[in-house]
Known about the structure:
Largest sheet: 4 strands, antiparallel
Number of domains: 4
Distance between the termini: 49 Å
Strand order of the largest sheet: 3-4-6-5
CATH superfamily of the largest domain: Homing endonucleases
Radius of gyration: 28 Å
Shape: globular
CATH class of the largest domain: Alpha Beta
Strand content: 15-25%
Number of strands: 20
Helix content: 25-40%
Amino acid sequence: MTIGTLKYSTHSRSYGFLLEDGKAAKEQYNANCKNSYLKIISLPSSNEKLNSLLCALLLSSGRIMSSATNHKYFRFTFNTKHSEWAHSCYQQLQSHIPDFLIKKEQTTDTRSKSGFTERVVIESAPCATAEALYSAWYQNVSKGMPLEFVEQHMTAQTLAWWYQECGHLKVKENGTLEKLILSTEQWTEDELRLLQYVVNIKFNFLFAIDGQRRLILYDQLQIKYFLGMVAPWIHPVFSYKIKNVEVRKPVAKRTTIRLPKQISIPSPTDEINQMIQQYASSIRVTTENFQRFNYARQENNESKRYQVSLTEENRDILCSVQAATGLTLGEIVQECFHQQNCISPRPLNTLDDLSTTQQNIMLGSIIGDGTLRHTPSKSMGIRSNYHEHFSINQHEYRAWKVMKLHPYLVFKREGTVIDSKVDNLWSTLQSDFYAEKVKDERRIKRLPANQLTNLNDLHSIATVYMDDGSLMLTTRVNDNNKKIYITPHIALYLQNFTYEELECFIVQIKSLTLAEFTLTKRPDGNGYYLRTNRTADTLLFLQDIQPVTITCPAMQ
């Protein structure tokens, strides 16, 4: 590999290096940056792009400094090995704030043979932008992570810049991606949780936190999707950080495929081979389906194992799809059945025609905001369907519910209604959840004992909470000690059910969480709702349902 020299004209002396065989990569990178500028012009605020770039640099080692006159300015430092990357940052920042300058600095270092080390520094003159952001990032003198700013301004390019500054991709000798790391040691544990939340709500990534306080992705699905998303913004200097070799692992001729229990297959080998041949080669992980694939891994559905013999052609297809997407064999085959079910949905006759997760979300929805109603059908008389009306402010949460129960639940045209087609399941559930209507009186929804026992997964009470629950704060003032005590409570507003029904519901809740709920009086409905009284119970409940709520960022 040969190295050529490229000169820059900057406020300091000219310098810089380019890999000659990286010319095409650099041209593509510059084109991506220019395209980004064109998109930003249409934004209502010219600061949107600048804030997204500053967000990335401040999440890494960037700082906002005070001058001798206490005016604020930006300062970003880079390793001299990354001079090309530093200059690219400088050019993009300067297009928004012209008084940025770039220079080399020498620092005394007795450990170095030369007695000093060099670094590249980008600095701005004191400016209003630095003054404004200082109050957000330095609320307690030292740098802190401002949730509102980061949540508002983090974009895919923000994530790419942050990854280039603080990221590392660990690859095994055979090319398999082992883990992707974002170094976040400078942030507190609370700030790390906020960063987890932001990258989840913005991009649907579920980062773990390791013992060194770093954000980490371990699974192939998330790592591959992350690398594909940030690739347009990765500078050629850091091309090694998006090295994504498709390692093809041979698939055995006779293997075990694990599928959710509701997928019933009388002839496993024939049907699974047929599904793979028909749908598998078209499977891609995209922005439209990544959330569904990634969050499905948090589910704990009853499943069944099938021993099958795969054709040579299908083994090759599975090998290619697995290497490209990071999906497991079971997930690929399940997606084949999902695509077929979207085209021709299986009829819903009983709850067993849904997955464990789907069953519990559905029952939780009926207990919460959902209703079951009679609908006339042309061929089969009066049938039942599911119906749910909601505020437009809750659309993101309802979209989560529709995603989980697709293709059985869909949004109606008006956008604030969820509906289903008529099916036998809805008729059965309607007869269980609703007492027979007395003439001229409203129907009464009830909690049937035979359906309460089907609430066997945390998705059920999590859905009830997200539908009809609230996190409340009560305060108590101690005038003697001059202290204010704040106590969090979970409230489940189920006052449309009777006292006896709620008692039975509490018993069922205890089978899912150790958090204790009590019956509390209120003036409307049947006079009672459910509430936690102790802080410990409130925190325990939120902790227990977290595996569900992290898959619904709108409700986190």
